[in-house]
Amino acid sequence: MTNLSPDKLCRRCDTAQFSFTTTAELVDAEYALGQERAVEAIRFGIGMSPRGYNLFAMGPEGVGRHQIVSQLLAERAATEKIPDDWCYVFNFNQAHRPKALRLPAGKGIEFRRDMERLVEDLRAGIPAAFESDAYRAQRREIESELNERQSQAMGGVEESASAQGIALVRTPAGFGFAPRHEDSVMEPQEFLKLPEKERKRLEAVIGELQEELGKVLHEMPKWRREAYRKLKELNREITRTAVSGLIEDIRLKYAALPEVVAYMGAVQEDVLDHAEYFLQTKETEAPVGMDMSHSEAGESPLRRLAVNVLVERTSEAGAPVVYEDNPTHDNLIGRIEHLAQMGALKTDFTLIQAGALHRANGGYLILDAHRVLTQPFAWEALKRSLRSRQINMESLGQALSLISTVSLQPECVPLDVKVVLIGQRQHYYLLHQYDPEFASLFKVLVDFEDDMDRHPGSDLQFAGTMAAITRRESLRPLDREAVARVVERASRLAADSGKLTVQMMGLADLLRESDHWAAQSKEQIITAPHVQRAINAMEERSGRVRSRLRENVLRGTLLVDTSGERAGQINGLAVMQLGGFAFGMANRITARVRLGSGRVVDIERETDLGGPLHSKGVLILSGFLAGRYAQGVPLSLAASLVFEQSYGGVDGDSASSAELYALLSALADLPLPQSLAVTGSVNQHGDVQAIGGVNEKIEGFFDLCKARGLSGKQGVLIPASNVKHLMLKDEVVEAVAAGQFAVHAVSTIDEGIALLTGIPAGAADNSGQFPEGTVNYRVEQRLLKFAEQIRNRQSNGPRRRPVRARKRGNQ
User: Fold this and answer.
1) DSSP of 279-347, one letter per residue?
2) Are 481 and 23 in contact (CB under 8 A)?
3) Could you tell me whether strands 85-89 and 99-103 are parallel, antiparallel, or unpaired per DSSP bridges?
4) Which is it for the CA torsion 187, 190, 191, 192, positive or negative?
5) For a surface tag, which of 467, 555, 637, 650 has the fewest beta carbons within 10 Å of its beta carbon?
6) CA atoms within a 13 Å half-sphere pointing along the CA-CB vector of 548
7) Which residues, 6+ apart, have CB-to-CB distance to 519 below 8 Å?
8) For 526, how many CA atoms within 13 A lie in the half-sphere containing its CB?
9) Quick one: how far is CA 744 from the chain centroid?
C-alpha cells in the first residue's frame, strides 16, 4: 500500500530538454510519427508485385491513416512509369461490343484529334473527288453504256414489229403493240373490220413480239444492276483515292501499335462503304450507287469514327494514386450512360465513362472499407476485378433487369492496380472470418498504432510534429511551455504516462483551438495558458451530462456520501463515455449478508442490468471467499450486491474490488469511510488488477469532494499497476501536495481493507488461522457461525412454519 506523492500523479514534460524558443525554429518531423510498423508494412505491400498483395490499413480514426498511406504511395508512384492511355472505339464487326485500345501515355488525346482531323479531311476530300471531271466522265460513260444497251434492245424489238406492220406503243402502263394502218396506229374499230384470218395473223405476230419484248424487259434489271455495280466500284475507287492517303498517314504515325493499325484498316473499309455520309451534296444530287439510308445499328459513320478517351495521362507524372470517396458500383468499374430520344433510351460507345479502377490502372487505388461494404454490389465488383485482373464494365441496371433497353458490352480492360483498403480493425477481422476470398486478395495487413513510447527524444519528435501542423495550417508557433503542455495532454489522451497518443486529428484540433485563443488574446505565439484554455473549453462544451449528474449528487437526488462511515457500503468509481468525452462518477455500492447456501447474488445481473464482465467480477468474489475462509466447512452465506440508483446498466469488472470490500465490511461488521472511493478489479487470490479510465475516475470523485469541501480525509484507492497510467490535472496534484486529497495505490485486497477499516487484514499462519482482532479473522468467524447454524438446523430436522389464520373480510 502506497500513499502516492504528487510527482507520481502526473509525469511532467521538462522544458529544459528543448533548445528552441518556439516551434518556428524546428524542422518538420516525420509524418508517420510512431507508425514504424505500419510504414514498413506499406512499403512491403507496394513493393510486392505478385497477385493478391493488396493492402488493408486498419486502425482508429484520427491517427493519419489516409495521409500516411497517400504520402507513401505518392513517393513510390513518382518513381514509376506513367501507365498507358485507354480509349474505346467503334467495333465495326460487333456494334454492341466497343473495342478497347491501349495507347502510350498522352497519345489518347492526340489520337482523338487525329481522328477528328481525318473526319474533317474526308468531309472535304470525298466531295471534291466526286466533283472531279474524271469521275463525271466515267459515270457518264457507265450511264451512256446502260442507256445505249437499253435503246438498242428496244430498237431491235421496234424494227422487228415495224417490218411486220406492228407499232410499238408506249403507255402509262408500260409498252404495248398495235397494228398499223398507213402511218398511224389502227383504231380498234378498224381492226374489228379486218377479215378474221388477218386478225388472227396480227394477233399471232403481236404475241411473238410481246414475248420478244418480255425477254428484253427481263434483261434490263440485270443491265441496271451491272451498271450499279460498276458505279459502286467506281465510287469505291474514287473514295479510296481520296481516303487512302489520309488514313495511311495515321497508320504510319501509329505503326508501332498493331491494334491501332488494325483499327485504321477497319475504318478505311467502313468509309468506303459509307462514303455518301461525307458528301456535302443534296440528296437528289447524290451519285448513282450511293445508299443514303441509315447504316446498321442506327449509327452515323461520322459518330462511329469518334474516339472515346476513357483515361488520359497527359497531366500525370509517374503512376496514378487515386482516392475514391464514393465507391459505388458504377464509380468503381465505370458506367454506360444513356440518352433519351423519342421516348427511348439509347447509348453508344462515346457514352462510356471511366471508373476509379480505370483511373488508377497501372497505379494505386485507395478506398474506405466501410463505404465499399455499404454500397450495393461494390464489394463484389471490386473482388471480381481483382480476381480476373480485368475491368468488366457491366451495367448494374442491365444485370438486375431493371432496364430492358439495348445496352453495350464493352471489351474488358486489363487491370494492373494495387488497392489499399482503409478501415477499422473490426472490418478486417470480420472480412477475414466471413469472406473466404478476402485473405487471398488482401494479403498485407497494415496495423496502425494508437500511441508511441514516451522518452526525451519522442518529446522532441512530437514538438517537430506540432511545428509541421502549425506550418501546414498557418497557425502561430508554440513556445516551449506550450509544447510541454501539449505533450502532457498527449500522454493523458494515451491514458499512460509512458506513452504519447498519435491521434493526429485530435492534436491538430487542439492546436487550432489554442491558436484561436492566442488570437483572442492578440498574441503572436501560442503559450501554455492558451493550450490549457483550449483544453478546458473542449471539456466544458462536452460536460453538460457530467455537470447535471454532479448537481444531482450535490442536491441529494443521487445518494453518494463523501464523509462518515457505514458498514457494507462503499463508493465505487465508474467511467461514462458519451461520444468522444469520458468522465468519472461515483456510485454507492452496498452489500447485505445473511445465512444461506453460499451464493453471492448480483442484483444487477438478476434484473438484466449487469453486463457479462460485471457478472464475471461478482462470481470471482464467491471464489475468493470460498478459497480463503472457513475451508473446512461449507460456505453458508447468502449475500447480495448492488449498484444503488443504477438505471442504465452496469458492465465491466473495475468495481469488483469495491464490491469485495463492501462484502467483507458487511461480514466483519466493520464500517467503511465514505470519504474514500475505490476502483480496481480483483482475482480469486485477492490481487487487485489494473482497470481503465483511472484518471477520469479519480478526477470525478475529486470534483465531487471539492464541490462539497475538501476535508483532507478524502481520497481514492487505485490498483498499484495503474500508477504508470496517472496523468491527473493540475488541480488534483496541487490538492494532494497540500494534503487535502490522497491517492492510494494498493496491490492486494488485504492492503485495501486495512486502509479502509484501520484494522490489519491479518495473514493466516501455518495452520490456516488468522490472528484475532484482524479483519480476516472477523470474516472467518462470521462464516463459521453461519456454518454452525446450518449444521444445527440439519441435526434438529426441518422446522415447520406455523400456519397463520387468514383474516376474512366482512361477508
Assistant:
1) --S-GGGPPTT---S--GGG--HHHHT--EEEE--TT--SS-EEE-SS--HHHHH-EE--EEETTEEE-
2) no
3) antiparallel
4) positive
5) 555
6) 4
7) 476
8) 28
9) 47
**Which position has the grid cell 513510447?**
453
- Tens-place pLDDT, residues 148-181: 777 777 777 767 777 776 777 776 666 767 776 6
**In the chain, helix, strand, coil percent, each to 5?**
50, 20, 35
Separation of CA 361 from chain center: 19
**d(C-alpha 803, C-alpha 423), whole Å:** 69
Residue closest to 338 by CA, chosen among 403, 410, 268, 277:
403
Angle between helices 504-520 and 456-473 (to 10 degrees): 60
The label of the residue with cell 500513499 reads 3
The C-alpha atoms of residue 521 and residue 784 are separated, in whole angstroms, by 70
Q: Environment class of residue 285 by beta-carbon count within 10 Å: exposed (0-12), middle (13-18) or buried (19+)?
A: exposed
Q: Where does 7-64 have alpha helices with state H?
A: 36-47
More confident site: 291 or 102: 102
Write out the three cell numbers for 308: 472515346
Q: Which helix (DSSP H) or strand (DSSP E) does residue 248 occupy?
A: helix 196-253
A 10 A CB-CB count for 153 gives: 18
The amino acid at 470? T
Q: What is the pLDDT of residues 785-811, one digit of tens each?
A: 888 887 787 777 655 555 454 444 443
Contact call for residues 786 and 636 (beta carbons, < 8 A): yes
> What amino acid positions are annotated as catalytic residues?
654, 697
